[in-house]
Amino acid sequence: MRQSLGTILTAMVTPFDADLSLDEAALAALADQLLDHGSDGLVVAGTTGESPTLTDDEKERMFRCVVEVARGRGSVIAGTGSNDTAHSVHLTRRAEAAGVDAVLVVTPYYNKPPRAGLLEHFRTVAAATSLPLIIYNIPSRCVTNLPPELLAELAGVENIVAVKQANCDLDESRRLRELCDLGLYAGNDDMLFDIVAMGGWGGICVSSHLVGERMHQVADMAAAGRLEEARTLDDALMPLYRALFATTNPILVKAALGMSGCPVGGLRLPLVEASDEEGAALRLVLAQHHLV
Prior knowledge:
Helices cover 47% and strands 13% of the residues.
């Protein structure tokens, strides 16, 4: 069995100041808070971190900042993937130099490479680093799905250690478990229980910004075979999961952090603030979970 990088890995938001510049002080404070409240590791500059609107220099500053906070306390996984293999290699090398523990590499989006191109993309990025690599399969954003058979082939690459599976077809995840020992992380919060119950490593989560300890309980119970207890706790969290994803992530998790007393600033266009209606619905659910 390959070694896990942790059970609950929080896909961090990127805090911005009033002019939407990177707020490193707020980033460090948020990393510290998350590591103290249920996160075994932190994913920096992923989808939730608004990676499409971050420069490479900003990403490297973030990697170094969070590595410093997390030293000895948890893993740091850098989002370094894009739809350009050469750029992904370049950023992966910068992340390794910054001291991160692993990289998260998304399926190339928009250019829709064929199967052979997908295989070569991930192999090329993996060959450029000594770090563990987590593949990020998110067909809802990338159009292309990575089927279990393709992922199992990539599992033959020594430092490709896991997949963040944001494909909600659980049968594909079960098939992957049958084919190989590639680590499996839930890529959607509402998949955490099911993924751990089938032997996965945990989740790369968003709601763990707010309920990391409770999500860790779900995973721990499921891993221990206490499935009924885990399911009950997971069911109780479902309204929060739905509320945070009622519109495009990370709009509502940033709003929720502000409501809960941990302001992280606004969003860079083309993302926009939550509407009044979205904010009111979110606040109601947060209140029900004693988070405001």
